[in-house]
């Protein structure tokens, strides 16, 4: 990020007096004092940074970002040119509005240019970001700054997810997704885990099975993601170095699927007759697997990422147990009364289908816990809040890569500065070899959508997710709460100034207001 | 409210499937099922209501609200005309936009008019709402609806408050206050308890002491309430039947006062010398009382309401204890080591000053608890979360009126449907005579601003505060959670449709989206 070069040593001191009206509830955290960090507003903190005591001015009239002569990628790289333009706007829009630079000439101490030097042979300008993309970058030099990066230089091994399938994509709501991805890039989140369907709604408009959203979405044309909506989101993300990993969660969390796809879900019984309600996907019918095969064939073409998230969490067995046909099937298969075997039976067949599409897959931890046979490149998603370290130990012992989201459920809100709780979590504290630790390829901040929509998503997400961003991107030893507080307060003001209404950490105000 | 007449019996059924991703935290409440309430979207529920099975259409082309011939108030009453216009806009704007009524003629079953009949001799058209205003109203008749009301017909014995002195009032922020009062009216909140200054900032621009905001506000001209800002807010509130009760909290919570007013605060000591920091208002100096006398004289003229809130909460004694002059003063006054006596000494003199201005006063419960001698018309504000019932019992036993806010601290957020917690609270469950119960003149929902600003205020406030609104406005027996959930979900959608981003109660969507 360009602005990272300009960490002015602190001169502005804010005095914040702490008051807490206590009426019998406890606050979740300490109150760090708001001093000035030597790192200014840098967030998240890079692995290495050295602050110069010399302050360089940055003038919109004279400053330019351009491609270094030696760079392997240049003017033809739309992705880079887009990024230059974006950051030029971020940095200079407000000062240009105020007309600050119109009359000024460049001074000798001005920072006049930023040269971008791509050193890798493949600049990945026209491809999608992937898990193997080299995202390391470096700023060096003084007035002439060279920096090396692979594609976009906002790097994180993070997934970001929301449970509520954003219910609609008319113009105003599209803004929600766009804001979301924009702020993700600022906070170095590089994977958008798009939990696009769930029990309440099926907003994904499938070309193969249009009846799914026709009957399963909140509304069949105002509350759906059309193929072109999906394309736009993927492209908007790509330009910011963000992968889009869709999740189509089965066999549970599929109530909305059943509305448009007859016989896909298991009929629940009340005594000897069907109750009229439905349970998880029906694992005993061949039609189920025919459907899944066709459905995921489409998913494979629509979503370019090498991975798809297949879910597999929270399967409720009660409906299966009530159904006499399922009982008979259990008997035939020799599963006894162990319904997790039936679940695994389903998942196993689903995984076999996906394998034929050449997609890699992620699954929620239950699938691993139940002993389903997984491809060696499977990513196991650890989300349960209990026994997190044991689970990480087991998963990595078995040789699987893993993504951790258990400590970062942002939908769990509480009074006070709970960003500190997310910030303190340490993903590598489990017992294991260095090789095992390396299998933890990232973390994910989740904001499930039961209590969230466009009215409250953004301030609930930011800057709380920013705390997760630094935990996962910066050095493990970056843990000073006071320093973090100072930087994060400024970072959140920067987000507000750029149009993302991130909520305040505490009292105080933003200098730009 | 005009729209209350039109409670269409339910025909729209939403199916909501409940899913909760459980990762080790507990949810705060049950999940009510979303059926349809026989009362449609009525919120809060009136004391009496009868739903007609006949549905009347309301056509923007033909419907008019006007003054009944017999009404004691009519076309010259700006307050009423304003309310008619407002509700006409609320009800018909969206349908007119869609051009629904342009081509349609009035049908026989149309509701064609609403006659407003003010029966009280004094319509209070040009005065401010007061605690004695008769706010009862009634809708009767069928096609011709007469309704009686005193002034605005949105009545509640509620105060509404926010701790963070809204730090700024530039155009964009003024919208915050305006939105706040607008939604208050919809939810029958009739008092805006304006906690206008506190430790972090003194945004109130005083004509008498302009240096207070000059030095004590976050910013001396962008983050202040000018006299005309205050006037506009009071008038905007008046048109909606909302009283504005300002709070100038002393002797604690006054850090920001000290920046512009020399010698007002007590210098704290570190050993034998001043530490440079300051504590509560200095109670031993006559200059303190001279200042307060002049300051509250101004407050008296700026704020027309008959009451002012004087605070008196959470006084920290440590600074007083450290100061040798205060120690000497304590000795002279014979207070021993009991610093609450010093606090009461201050408050007592302050109350005497206010009494001369003819304002009534409210105080936080500590002032009562410390045995300060109070005027008989004092309103004691019960806010502490522990021993609420005992406190209410004591306060009313002593004959004072009281406002309860302890169960309704909306700044305490938690995961899940916490509106239910606010909804379940019962303010009159304490032991006491009927006469004592009558002294509980209202309740207050508080949203202290430590973690709130314009980015997240509105969705955090609504519809959680709406739950408090119904608890305090509707009959005590109105407690059915399923019925409330159904109505509140619709009520929140109505707020969103009218431009107030109230957050969702749970999954689902709004019909207007």
Automatic annotation (TrEMBL), chains A, B:
It is found in: Cytoplasmic vesicle, Secretory vesicle, Cortical granule; Lysosome. Its EC number is 3.2.1.52. Keywords: Cytoplasmic vesicle, Disulfide bond, Glycoprotein, Glycosidase, Hydrolase, Lipid metabolism, Lysosome, Signal. It catalyses: beta-D-GalNAc-(1->4)-alpha-L-IdoA-(1->3)-beta-D-GalNAc-4-sulfate-(1->4)-alpha-L-IdoA-(1->3)-D-GalNAc-4-sulfate + H2O = alpha-L-IdoA-(1->3)-beta-D-GalNAc-4-sulfate-(1->4)-alpha-L-IdoA-(1->3)-D-GalNAc-4-sulfate + N-acetyl-D-galactosamine; Hydrolysis of terminal non-reducing N-acetyl-D-hexosamine residues in N-acetyl-beta-D-hexosaminides; N-acetyl-beta-D-6-sulfogalactosaminyl-(1->4)-alpha-L-iduronyl-(1->3)-N-acetyl-D-6-sulfogalactosamine + H2O = alpha-L-iduronyl-(1->3)-N-acetyl-D-6-sulfogalactosamine + N-acetyl-D-6-sulfogalactosamine; a ganglioside GM2 (d18:1(4E)) + H2O = a ganglioside GM3 (d18:1(4E)) + N-acetyl-beta-D-galactosamine. One of its GO terms (cellular component) is membrane. Hydrolyzes the non-reducing end N-acetyl-D-hexosamine and/or sulfated N-acetyl-D-hexosamine of glycoconjugates, such as the oligosaccharide moieties from proteins and neutral glycolipids, or from certain mucopolysaccharides. The isozyme B does not hydrolyze each of these substrates, however hydrolyzes efficiently neutral oligosaccharide. Only the isozyme A is responsible for the degradation of GM2 gangliosides in the presence of GM2A. During fertilization is responsible, at least in part, for the zona block to polyspermy. This is Beta-hexosaminidase. It comes from Oncorhynchus mykiss (Rainbow trout).
């Amino acid at each position: 990020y360009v602005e990272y070069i300009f960490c002015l040593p602190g001169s502005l001191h804010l005095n914040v007096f702490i008051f807490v009206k206590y009426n019998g509830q406890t606050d979740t955290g300490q109150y760090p004092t708001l001093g000035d960090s030597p790192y200014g507003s840098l967030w998240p903190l890079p692995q290495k940074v050295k602050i110069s005591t010399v302050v360089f001015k940055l003038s919109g009239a004279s400053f330019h970002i351009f491609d270094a002569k030696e760079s392997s990628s240049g003017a033809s790289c739309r992705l880079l040119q887009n990024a230059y333009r974006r950051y030029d706007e971020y940095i200079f829009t407000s000062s240009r509005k105020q007309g600050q630079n119109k009359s000024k000439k460049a001074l000798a101490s001005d920072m006049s240019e930023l040269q971008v030097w791509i050193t890798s042979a493949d600049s990945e300008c026209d491809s999608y970001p992937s898990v193997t993309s080299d995202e390391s970058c470096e700023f060096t030099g003084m007035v002439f700054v060279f920096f090396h990066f692979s594609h976009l230089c906002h790097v994180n091994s993070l997934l970001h997810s929301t449970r509520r399938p954003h219910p609609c994509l008319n113009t105003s709501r599209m803004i929600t997704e766009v804001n979301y991805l924009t702020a993700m890039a600022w906070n170095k989140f590089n994977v958008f885990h798009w939990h696009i369907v769930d029990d309440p709604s099926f907003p994904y408009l499938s070309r193969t099975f249009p009846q799914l959203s026709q009957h399963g979405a909140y509304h069949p044309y105002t509350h759906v993601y059309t193929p072109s909506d999906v394309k736009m989101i993927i492209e908007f993300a790509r330009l910011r170095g963000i992968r889009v990993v869709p999740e189509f969660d089965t066999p549970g969390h599929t109530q909305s699927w059943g509305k448009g796809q007859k016989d896909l879900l298991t009929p629940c019984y009340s005594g000897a007759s069907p109750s009229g309600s439905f349970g998880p996907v029906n694992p005993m019918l061949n039609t189920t697997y025919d459907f899944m095969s066709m459905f995921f064939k489409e998913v494979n073409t629509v979503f370019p990422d090498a991975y798809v998230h297949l879910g597999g969490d929270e399967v409720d067995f009660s409906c299966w147990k009530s159904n006499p046909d399922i009982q008979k099937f259990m008997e035939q298969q020799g599963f006894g009364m162990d319904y997790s075997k039936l679940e695994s039976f389903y998942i196993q067949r689903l995984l076999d289908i996906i394998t034929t599409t050449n997609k890699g897959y992620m699954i929620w931890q239950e699938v691993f816990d139940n002993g389903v046979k997984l491809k060696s490149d499977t990513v196991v998603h650890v989300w349960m809040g209990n026994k997190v370290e044991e689970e990480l130990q087991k998963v990595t012992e078995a040789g699987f890569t893993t993504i951790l989201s258990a400590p970062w459920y942002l939908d769990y809100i509480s009074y006070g500065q709970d960003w500190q709780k997310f910030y303190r979590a340490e993903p590598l504290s489990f017992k294991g070899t260095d090789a095992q630790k390396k299998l933890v390829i990232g973390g994910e901040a989740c904001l499930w959508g039961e209590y969230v929509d466009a009215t409250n998503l953004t301030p609930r997400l930011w800057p709380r997710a920013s705390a997760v961003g630094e935990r996962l991107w910066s050095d493990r030893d970056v843990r000073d709460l006071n320093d973090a507080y100072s930087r994060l307060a400024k970072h959140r003001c920067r987000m507000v100034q750029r149009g993302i209404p991130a909520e305040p950490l505490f009292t105080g105000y933003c200098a730009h207001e």
